[in-house]
Amino acid sequence: MVYDVIVLGGGPAGITAAIYGKRAGLNILVLDESPKSGGQILTTYEVDNYPGLPKIGGMELGDKLREHADQLGAEFAVGRVSSIEKQDDTFLLKTRKVTYEAKTVIIATGAGHRSLGAPGEAEHMGMGVSYCATCDGAFYKDKVTAVVGGGNVALEDALFLARTSKQVYLIHRRDEFRGDKVLVDQVKATDNITLVLDSVVESIEGQMKVDSLSIKNVKTEEVSKLEVDGVFIAVGITPNTDKMQGLPEMDAAGYILAGEDAQTSIPGVFAAGDVRTKQLRQVITSASDGANAIFSVQRYLNSQKLHKN
Ligand SMILES: Cc1cc2nc3c(=O)[nH]c(=O)nc-3n(C[C@H](O)[C@H](O)[C@H](O)COP(=O)(O)OP(=O)(O)OC[C@H]3O[C@@H](n4cnc5c(N)ncnc54)[C@H](O)[C@@H]3O)c2cc1C
Predict the structure, then answer these.
(1) 308 pLDDT tier (thresholds 50, 70, 90)
(2) Ligand 1 binding pocket includes 43 (Cβ within 6 Å)
(3) Which of 35, 63, 60 is closest to 48 using CA atoms?
(4) Residues 162-188: what's their mean pLDDT?
(5) What is the number of the ligand 1 atom nearest to the C-alpha of 12?
(6) Residue whose CA lies nearest to ligand 1 atom number 3
(7) Residue 36 CA to ligand 1 centre (angstroms)
(8) Would you say the CB of residue 40 lies under 6 angstroms from ligand 1?
(9) pLDDT for 282 beyond 70
């Protein structure tokens, strides 16, 4: 069987592509290494910024996305794709057990947030530990928060949180930030942001939810306690492109080079969602990418005369 399009990844980008693809009459398959659709949002307690669905649970949103695609008859299969290979007019996609064939491919394998690896981090995820200030910052209105990291994302997160949090601590292991000077200056000029430099988080503590951090000064070795209601970890995101062969061109960080039209350096291969180079990685921007990718797939199929409308 040769599919019109195979989508790698069943997160918001991949499922939106499936919805738009089925409605466009395409023969489409979504491949995900996980049997549970939804991608990263499955790991969050609540999503409160997707229009029309306020305060929806991450798991519930994942289920709703999948139900929508199921209602339209989209086909799903479980498998981790390890390579994309061009063969004449089609692409071969290899998983451990099966090789799939398609006229076009949408890569929507998403990204993962780096963790600190500190004791208490995993246990408190969604209970005071967050990797996304844009997503969860509003839950900490008038509360005390901390941001960990020294790059632009950490600086932007601190500024974002300072608008609503009572107090923000910005914890960085060095005495200088890697981020842009303009952001560093803004952070330093913000009254309710306190810099905690040369310091690392030793552990994240609290009974049901986070109530404090143990901080070690790396120069003096002194350990102190910082009382916080939430901690935002901004030590980097990695795109899920590291274990796949045959990918299009990527930037230095491993994101696939593609614009809003999802076109990559390989004709017939498209990239959507968090895995591509873009400004804001969110459910809504991923869903938008999935829709755009299908539009580009249709154009490509028509231009190659690979699909009859
Ligand atoms: C804790 C947390 C909270 C968040 N909260 C919000 C929020 O409140 N609001 C918001 O808008 N955004 C939020 N986000 C961001 C949002 O979840 C992402 O922007 C969005 O899920 C990206 O969608 P995606 O489809 O591009 O990728 P993903 O959701 O990452 O999905 C990618 C899918 O690809 C699969 N995959 C990966 N590699 C392979 C492979 N080789 N073969 C087959 N399948 C593969 C994965 O299993 C996964 O299902 C949050 C993220 C996190 C981590």
Answers:
(1) low
(2) yes
(3) 60
(4) 95
(5) 25
(6) 44
(7) 12
(8) yes
(9) yes
Cα(112) to centroid of ligand 1, in Å? 7
Instruction: Note whether 229 and 143 are within 8 A (CB).
Output: yes
Residues 6+ apart with CB under 8 A from 114: 233, 235, 236, 237, 238
In the CATH hierarchy, which fold is given to the domain comprising 129-233? FAD/NAD(P)-binding domain (3.50.50)
Q: Residue 179 pLDDT > 90, yes or no?
A: no
Q: Which atom of ligand 1 is nearest to the CA of 46?
A: 8
11 Cα: distance to centroid of ligand 1 (angstroms): 5
User: Does any ligand 1 atom lie closer than 6 A to the CB of residue 41?
Assistant: yes
State if residue 59 touches ligand 1 by the CB under 6 angstroms criterion: no
**What does R_g of the chain's alpha carbons equal in angstroms?**
21
Residue 133 CB contacts under 8 Å (≥ 6 apart), including other chains: 147, 156, 157, 160, 161, 232, 234
- Nearest ligand 1 atom to alpha carbon 14: 25
> Domain 2-113+237-308 classified CATH 1.10.8.100?
no
Q: What is the structure's pLDDT at 305? A: 77
Domain with CATH 3.50.50.60 in the chain: 2-113+237-308, 129-233
Catalytic positions, please?
132, 135-136
Phi, psi dihedrals of residue 104, rounded to the nearest 5°: -140, 160
| Chain segment 226-270, per-residue pLDDT in tens | 999 999 999 988 999 988 999 999 999 999 999 999 999 999 999
pTM: 0.83
